[in-house]
């Protein structure tokens, strides 16, 4: 036990360093958003495209659970689906994201239709769903560990949006407020599971690569928004055009 503990501690530090180096809180779009520098169109573009990611989270979790033979792991994991889908219509993280969409002036039905999603957003998010569906369970769980780094970005986002944007209030930002409560519970289980199951150097390398892949998925989504809607704005064919899908 004592000989194993330093290896476990070192591995956890390695995972946390990936977040320090690569998490998308360092992307210039988030700095622009949190500082109040985004235009209404840019905020709407972010809400529309991020919805696609939010909508696919319970789908990737369902794909993961379909591969798990351990009932204990399935029971622990299924709360993630309930967090996003809720237990009834109008509940859960996806419904709260649509409240944000309405607050920024978008028709929630338009956002939920997934019309106008940037191609790079779609490719990145779909790649994540396939990764969780097809890769080893250790990789699939390790990819979820970006939640280790989420509380800080949620706190920064809540503070920045409340300070700089008229649409921001307790109701419109309820998604982020709830994730401050939900994410730590999810990641505590996931982190311990990865630390328990990554018992060889090869395992640890595989888990680290999976976490890097997930940070790339998140970063790519923001790159897509920046290239399409910031400067120089180059909106690809078929993607959302400012003024579409408004209330």
Automatic annotation (TrEMBL):
Q: Where are the transmembrane segments?
A: none
What's its EC?
1.3.3.11
Q: Does the keyword Oxidoreductase apply?
A: yes
| Superkingdom of the organism of origin | Bacteria
Q: In which pathway does it act?
A: Cofactor biosynthesis; pyrroloquinoline quinone biosynthesis
| A Pfam family | TENA_THI-4
A GO molecular function term, named singly, is: pyrroloquinoline-quinone synthase activity
Keyword Oxidoreductase listed: yes
Catalytic function, reaction form: 6-(2-amino-2-carboxyethyl)-7,8-dioxo-1,2,3,4,7,8-hexahydroquinoline-2,4-dicarboxylate + 3 O2 = pyrroloquinoline quinone + 2 H2O2 + 2 H2O + H(+)
- What SUPFAM superfamilies does the annotation carry? Heme oxygenase-like (SSF48613)
Q: Which InterPro entries match?
A: Haem_Oase-like_multi-hlx, PqqC, PqqC-like, Thiaminase-2/PQQC
The Thiaminase-2/PQQC domain is annotated at: 13-223
Keywords, ordered alphabetically: Oxidoreductase, PQQ biosynthesis
Q: What does this protein do?
A: Ring cyclization and eight-electron oxidation of 3a-(2-amino-2-carboxyethyl)-4,5-dioxo-4,5,6,7,8,9-hexahydroquinoline-7,9-dicarboxylic-acid to PQQ.
Question: Which family does the entry's similarity section mention?
Answer: Belongs to the PqqC family.
Q: Which PANTHER family match?
A: 4-AMINOBENZOATE SYNTHASE, PQQC-LIKE PROTEIN
Q: What is this protein called?
A: Pyrroloquinoline-quinone synthase
Q: State the organism named in the record.
A: Lutimaribacter marinistellae
């Amino acid at each position: 036990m004592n000989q194993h503990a330093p290896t476990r501690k070192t591995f956890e530090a390695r995972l946390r360093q990936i977040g320090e180096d690569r998490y998308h809180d360092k992307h210039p779009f988030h700095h622009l958003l949190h500082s109040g520098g985004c235009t209404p169109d840019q905020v709407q573009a972010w809400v529309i495209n991020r919805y696609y990611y939010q909508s696919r989270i319970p789908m990737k979790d369902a794909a993961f659970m379909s591969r798990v033979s351990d009932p204990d792991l399935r029971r622990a994991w299924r709360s993630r689906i309930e967090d996003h889908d809720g237990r009834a219509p109008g509940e859960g993280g996806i419904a709260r994201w649509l409240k944000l969409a309405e607050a920024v002036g978008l028709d929630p039905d338009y956002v939920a239709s997934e019309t106008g999603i940037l191609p790079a957003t779609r490719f990145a998010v779909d790649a994540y769903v396939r990764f969780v569906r097809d890769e080893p369970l250790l990789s699939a769980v390790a990819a979820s560990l970006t939640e280790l780094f989420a509380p800080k970005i949620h706190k920064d986002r809540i503070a920045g949006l409340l300070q700089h944007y008229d649409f921001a209030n307790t109701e419109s930002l309820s998604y982020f407020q709830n994730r401050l409560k939900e994410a730590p519970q999810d990641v505590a289980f996931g982190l311990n599971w990865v630390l328990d199951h990554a018992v060889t150097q090869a395992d640890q390398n595989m888990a680290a690569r999976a976490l890097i892949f997930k940070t790339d998925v998140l970063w790519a989504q923001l790159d897509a928004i920046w290239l399409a809607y910031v400067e120089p704005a180059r909106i690809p064919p078929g993607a959302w055009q400012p003024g579409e899908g408004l209330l």
